[in-house]
Amino acid sequence: MDAFLLSVIVCAGLIVFSLAAYAGWLLIKLHHQTKMQKRAKQDALDLRNLKIIESVDVIAMAALQEQCDFSEAAIRLYMIMTHLQGNKSVDFPECFPALYELYDLVKDMPRSEKRKCIQKKERMRFDMLRLKAQARLQTAIEFELESILVFTGAKMEKIQALRS
Questions:
Q1: To 10 degrees, the CA torsion angle through 59, 64, 68, 70?
Q2: How far is the C-alpha of 115 from the C-alpha of 124, rounded, in Å?
Q3: Cα–Cα distance for residue pair 94/113, rounded to 1 Å
Q4: pLDDT under 70: residue ranges of the chain
């Protein structure tokens, strides 16, 4: 009886030890999998931010080179930069107050097909508001666009070449 009881205890101990070892192996595997998922999520976030930053760089450079007007740049930059996440996220109204002021003015103005449907007098009124704001904020917007190019990593020679 003693030998039988001892063998049952040993078998039970082996079973408990095996289950504990298997549980430990599963925990290690889970930890590794969680770590890989976090890394993959961060890589995806970094890639998404990089694509957004490339677009922001192109828009800011186009605005400084007068390839698009400031109001169009303000709309596009605000809409794109609000999607930056993680350490690249930007509080647009706080960081770029002049661009945000222009964006806030023109965001509700009709564009594209809706603009064609309004009366000429109304269109001219919107244009005057927009052009006055662009003229008033021009220096500040140019400075903010240059700041955006610094943020995106654009080369300062491009900015200086624009001023010459």
A1: 90
A2: 11
A3: 32
A4: 1, 155-164
Name the DSSP letter for residue 49. H
Q: Which residues contact 117 (CB under 8 A, 6 or more apart)?
A: 110
Given the structure tokens 């030998």, which residue do they identify? 3
CA trace torsion 15, 16, 18, 20 (10° rounding): 160
| Residue matched to tokens 């080369």 | 155
Structure tokens at 154: 């654009």
Q: Would you report the helix, strand and coil content of the chain in percent, each value rounded to 5?
A: 85, 0, 15
127-144 burial code (b ≥16 CB/10 A, e <16):
eeebeebbeebeeebbeb
Condensed to tens digits (0 to 9), the pLDDT of residues 88-129 reads 888 999 999 999 999 999 888 877 777 777 877 888 888 889
Q: Spell out the domain ranges in the chain.
A: 2-163
DSSP, collapsed to helix, strand or coil, labels residue 51 as helix
From residue 66, alpha-carbon distances to 54, 71, 136, 156 in Å are: 18, 11, 16, 17
